[in-house]
């Protein structure tokens, strides 16, 4: 259900700008041919605007969804130019023929009853409206592309790999400790003792400091003095955790809820 609503929303977002654009073009046509209301009557005025709008929409979508994608975008410029000229000539021819019918047989204005009389005006106006339509479509596609890129950037989950080793200061030397081998860490005043499978390392620094440098998600603090490796948990009781089946670590009362699910 939610997927269907989302699809309808996306479809409407694509259709709405085009509807608004053609509504604007229709208003321009109405304003341009408003004199026909007095000369030819309202029905012929509506018919004239409808024919003109249908022709320019046909010309526009022919170029936007056929000629530009199949020829211009594939760098077939010669074929695209020839087909563009043919489509413009067809539009101008049909529009001029309709104007000849409208002015010659409906209005009776002999000045515009000839086919060639309205040809220059129709050629200029068709090229102008086609340019506006293509420019609008290109601008709309650019805006949608930028919006999609921004949405994709927001949805990208940046994952960083956890380090394999810790380099800790122990006395006068720096010790390399494999994170996967750490069983638990114990606080001892201003020091921390890191217990591994084979050894233990005493480093200067509070347990909080050590907790901050450990990779997130791999360790769990269960006591004010203990941090344990999740992967080393063998069993969990209310007051203690058994690690590797042999090491028992106390669980503080305020930390017990962190072990839920283990």
Automatic annotation (TrEMBL):
Q: Which residues form the HTH LytTR-type domain?
A: 166-262
Q: Which GO terms describe its molecular function?
A: DNA binding; phosphorelay response regulator activity
What InterPro entries does the record tag this protein with? Answer: LytR-like, LytTR_DNA-bd_dom
Gene3D superfamilies from the xrefs? Answer: LytTr DNA-binding domain
Q: Does the keyword Membrane apply?
A: yes
Keywords tagged on the record: Membrane, Transmembrane, Transmembrane helix
State which residue ranges cross the membrane.
Answer: 12-31, 43-65, 77-98, 118-140
Q: What is this protein called?
A: LytTR family transcriptional regulator
One Pfam entry for this protein is LytTR
